[in-house]
UniProtKB/TrEMBL annotation:
The gene is NR2C2AP. Transmembrane segments: none annotated. The keyword Cell division does not apply. SUPFAM superfamilies: Galactose-binding domain-like. The keyword Lipid metabolism does not apply. GO terms for cellular component: nucleoplasm. This is Nuclear receptor 2C2-associated protein. Interacts with NR2C2/TR4.
Amino acid sequence: MTHSLVCPETVSRVSSVLNRNTRQFGKKHLFDQEEETCWNSDQGPSQWVILEFPQRICVSQLQIQFQGGFSSRQGRLEGSQGSEALSKIVDFYPEDNNSLQTFPVPSAEVDRLKVTFEDATDFFGRVVIYHLRVLGEKKV
């Protein structure tokens, strides 16, 4: 059974937050399931989110909802186990719209993921994400 793998014990980090305003645009808004809140990155050539899970997981899908005009044309999902270096799992190509987009992921067992957003549709390289979901199975 596939379900959301991000839990309260999952540690997350992001590349930047617009004007360092974490209260209004911070990383917690990626996972709060609220329609009115979002993570808003600051400007830059690429943006990223790192997730460290409390246990090993098997990822099957990635779901992302951008704000149209502030999305990414190309994304990369990387993962690792323990202290290993990150290695590429899959590249994905989001559309520039407001819809929740689902990207299939080749089966990968990891406990750390990095989602990188490149080639932003915004001139300044900002990315706005309302929902980020990692779907799959927890490993025992």
